[in-house]
């Protein structure tokens, strides 16, 4: 069987994009997939890439990076055929490049950053300039993140507020275990909490989701209080 598209000796990424286009044109299964239907595959491929990073071989990593890239190409190809607001993989790449150039002024615009902390200051400043229309530190935080990842994100957002209005997060109760001293101990502590939840018939994911909803409300209330104080 011949290659459905002409391979490029100088641009493998372009060849991959052209291959995706051919698949979209000629594969009856691929033709009926839209962005929403593709989401479960994106989640699965992301999880497989994480496995490759943490426990896989170099070959696994290369393969899973390719599978995730295929998802990006797939979404871009779907988007390119939208009748109202089309964009393609080139538009995606240009948008990404523009954003990364803005967020690295120490690389592209003459700013100086000699430490990772200084880089983060510049990054956050550029990001804040881009997102001036946002009214809350929670804007842009997806509630569909895995619950523990979302918890870590929200705790970080809460810590960015002034101490005078910030909600209290993570205070240990009298029956709580000692604070873990390492990631391994943290894993043990989390596993112990999950085991305790199971013993009591509690849903650990639901319990954390409910607490995170409360934390989100507390953060927004703190922002409102801060806005009142600044008036």
Automatic annotation (TrEMBL):
Source organism superkingdom: Bacteria
Name the UniProt record assigns to this protein: MazG nucleotide pyrophosphohydrolase domain-containing protein
Domain annotation NTP pyrophosphohydrolase MazG-like: ranges: 35-108
PANTHER family (alphabetical): NUCLEOSIDE TRIPHOSPHATE PYROPHOSPHOHYDROLASE
Lineage, highest ranks first: Bacteria, Bacillati, Actinomycetota, Actinomycetes, Micrococcales
Xref: CDD domains: NTP-PPase_MazG_Nterm
Coiled-coil residue spans: none
Pfam family, one: MazG
């Amino acid at each position: 069987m011949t290659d459905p598209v002409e391979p490029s000796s100088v641009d493998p990424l372009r060849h991959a994009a052209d291959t995706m286009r051919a698949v979209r044109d000629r594969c009856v299964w691929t033709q009926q997939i839209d962005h929403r239907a593709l989401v479960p595959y994106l989640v699965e491929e992301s999880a497989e890439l994480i496995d490759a990073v943490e426990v896989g071989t170099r070959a696994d990593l290369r393969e899973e990076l390719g599978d995730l890239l295929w998802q990006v190409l797939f979404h871009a190809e779907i988007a390119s055929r939208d009748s109202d607001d089309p964009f393609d993989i080139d538009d995606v790449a240009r948008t990404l490049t523009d954003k990364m150039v803005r967020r690295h002024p120490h690389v592209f615009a003459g700013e100086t950053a000699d430490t990772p902390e200084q880089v983060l200051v510049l990054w956050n400043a550029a990001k804040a300039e881009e997102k001036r229309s946002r009214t809350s530190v929670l804007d842009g935080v997806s509630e569909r993140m895995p619950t523990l990842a979302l918890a870590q994100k929200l705790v970080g957002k809460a810590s960015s507020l002034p101490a005078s209005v910030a909600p209290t997060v993570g205070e240990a109760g009298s029956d709580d275990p000692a604070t873990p001293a390492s990631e391994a101990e943290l894993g043990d502590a989390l596993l112990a909490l999950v085991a305790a939840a199971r013993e009591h018939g509690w849903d650990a994911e639901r319990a954390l989701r409910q607490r995170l909803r409360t934390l989100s409300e507390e953060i927004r209330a703190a922002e409102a209080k801060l806005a009142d104080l600044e008036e």
